[in-house]
Structure formats: C-alpha cells, structure tokens
User: Fold HTH crp-type domain-containing protein from Acetivibrio ethanolgignens.
Amino acid sequence: MKNFLAATLPFWDALTEEEKELSLSNIETKAFPKGTVLYHVGMGEASFKIVRSGIIRGFISTPDGNEVTLYRLMGGDMCVLSVVCIMNVNSLDIHMEAETDSEVSMLPAWVYQRLNEDNNAVKDFTQQILTERFQAAMQVVSDLAFNTVGKRLAKGLLQKMRLLDSKELFITHETLAKDIGSAREVVSRTLKHFENLGIVKLSRGKITILDIEELEKQ
Assistant:
C-alpha cells in the first residue's frame, strides 16, 4: 500500500512520517461489483477515494428524470466528490456508481481533512483538483444548456472512441442517453440519423464509427 500511495498521491513525499502512518493505518481497499452505488448525498460519511481498477461514473439527475454524466474515474484517479464533501462545499446531489467491476482504496474523510488542514501540499492539491473538476462539470452543464442532442451525442461518441482507442464501441443507447442527459428514444433516433448519413454503423449493443471528420462536424 505504501508504494501505491507514493506512486499515486502527488503530495505523498511532502507528508510527515506521522501523516504517512496515519494514512496507512486508516486506508482500506474494497471491491465494488458493476452497478454498485458508492455514494450519493445523504448516504453517510464520505471518504477520499483512489480508483485502483475499473471505472467509476459520477452523475447528477435532471429535473425531468434523466441522468447526466459529469466525470469518469479510472485507475489512479482520485475522487473529487469526496474532496468536495470533505471541504463542505458540495451543493449538488451527485451520485457515484461502479460502471464496471472496480477496486477502490478509501481514506476516511476525517483523515484527509486533517491532512488538508495541516499540510500545505495537500491543501494545494485539493484546490487544484477542485478547480479542474469544477471547470469540467461546468462544461458539461454548458453543453446541456446550449448544445443540441446531436452535438452532445457526437461529442460523447468521440470521447468514448478516444478513451477506448477504438472505433468499435460496445455500448447501449441507454448508456449514451445517461451520458448526455437525454432520453433513450431521442438518442436512438439521432444515431439512426447518423447512420443514414454514413457516419456510424449500428448493430445490437455496438456502434462503429465510420467517419470521424463528419462526426466532428455534427
């Protein structure tokens, strides 16, 4: 665990020996099967989470009942939601769930809060990650407010392609709808339109991107 934290936490070397021991003696690692809810407002005490493997999705629900993905965390990523909750500035009803079978290391909120209060390197890291994630979340909200479903869907497909490094995406229309904050039926119609334009090819549980340049223009 010590080697993992040293390789993952950018502030590890700046911690005192006492702070390192406090972290090592309180951190725990758990496995979360696909679909497990890791956090939602009111669920209980938050923890600072480090994803060791798998994918964790953070999302909010819109007033009309749709879901909008704010971020995904993968191996080595740290959970911004936990940081936000620890700093007592969370006003969004954010949910987190395991999108795939995942393994996550968790440091209790009180431990991270003590580190943040006593160590300037941790404080700087907290501010940096809060700023980065807030900007990313605001971009998602801006897309939802000002971009069409077609543009959001095209952007989502391109992001998936680059994330997976593949033009063949094994993903359902329902999952895409959750990502962009739309209804499955609307996403299906838009994908069919893309297919008619020769941009994608649709098959059961799979979307193949045929024309990246045209998809970027949508």
Q: What stands out?
A: Residues 60 and 94 are 5 Å apart (CA to CA). The radius of gyration is 19 Å. The chain has nine helices and ten strands. Residues 120-146 form the longest helix (27 residues).
